[in-house]
Design goal:
The protein is an alpha+beta fold. It is built from four helices and three strands.
Amino acid sequence: MKYLSVRDLRTRSAKIWQDLSNEKEMIVTSNGRPIALLAPINEENLEEVVSAFRYARASAAVSALQYESIRKGSDKISMDEIDAEIRTVRAERKK
């Protein structure tokens, strides 16, 4: 995987766009930290690539929620406790 800085992207963009088709992906960095992912796409694979990206992002979000649930211990609550919490929140919304 190739890393490039924002400065590289700004000053050598023509070369980067040319190289992108040979690379599977490139990571854009700012001050040495990753900030973006560049990946080659075209009209034929646009929907597939965007769908895969959204799926990966959603999976990461679910994993983060699961981890947080385990960390807080809320992964062990029963369905009755969940239903009671939902009723409480709904009752507070009506007020």
